[in-house]
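Hey, quick one: can you model this chain's 3D structure?
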Amino acid sequence: MLIGHPSERQNCSTLPSDLAERRGAGGRVAAVSPVRRDVAGYVLGRNARWRCKRRVYTIPAVFRYTKIMNRLFCRIFLCLTLVACALVGLPVVAQEGPPENTPPKNATPEEIIQHFAAKEKEFKQARDQYTYRQDVRVMTVDGDTVTGEYHEVYDVLFDDKGRRIENVVFAPQSTLEQGNLSMDQGDFEDIRHRLPFVLTSDEIAEYNILYVGQQQEDELHCYVFDIAPKEIVGKKRYFQGRIWVDDHDFQIVKTYGKGVPDITDSKKKGKDEHLYPKFTTWRQQIDGQYWFPVFTRADDELHFKIGDIHIREIVKYEDYKRFGSNVKILYEGKELPQGEKKPEQKKPEEKDPNPPQK
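Sure thing. Here's the predicted structure for all 358 residues.
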């Protein structure tokens, strides 16, 4: 969100500032995030892939007492509070195990990286064959009050020629400027490409990828990696943060980080600032094969020179449906290039039923 651009080639191997550094053997640096729980309305699981879970909340202490409250009243108060939270649809707390700094079994980190990057390439190609609805909400908040909002709902479809298009179905006038914020091209690019982050075999050369350890995400056991771009080239945007890779399907099931770089134009004395929030994206297995993004949440404080702005983002990816089918045309055991037709076979010469007599 609204700073100028850094030098054309800038080293950006550091991780987000809220990730504490931990040095290992050989001076390599791994980033360990502070203990935190991610907010989502689903539970990751290999059998029941995403199932609803009972809502759990932390009730802040808002009263001071001179006498010990009756224990029964406390329980009633807590139950009523939980019911109220459930009715207003507040998010739940996802179950996350403690990080384990243990090496992977039966494979090296490099082999796991190559494996999941190849899977991510398959996933990216598969997702391009699906239609879905994307619901984007970006809000500025002051305490519990929403001071500005951008909201857009659009369907990702295909036209009659098979070309991918976006059909906007709901887009009221944005009021973000009332919250002293406006969205730039980097924001829209991040919404489409960084929030549903994909790291394929074609892109791993652009990133430093560091194995951190293993961690349980609900019912999934995951390998954890920290990634950061090796350098910022031109005006290209990258992802920087942490990814969780399922040790069974070798696909990314969760990401936490942000789009980089933030941009500051020092010549304009901070009047042109572009800052971007940290976010978490959860994936769900679709059609029993690929893990597609289904929910993204950001809740971050952007520290502009003119003042801090609290931003909240919620992105939902819904109603995935496979479009058409990929039909392979084979000729003599080989797949023909797209658009090329099978060569016509020559018809056998017909014999004259009444050949001339010699």
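One thing worth noting: The helical segments are 71-88, 109-127, 185-194.
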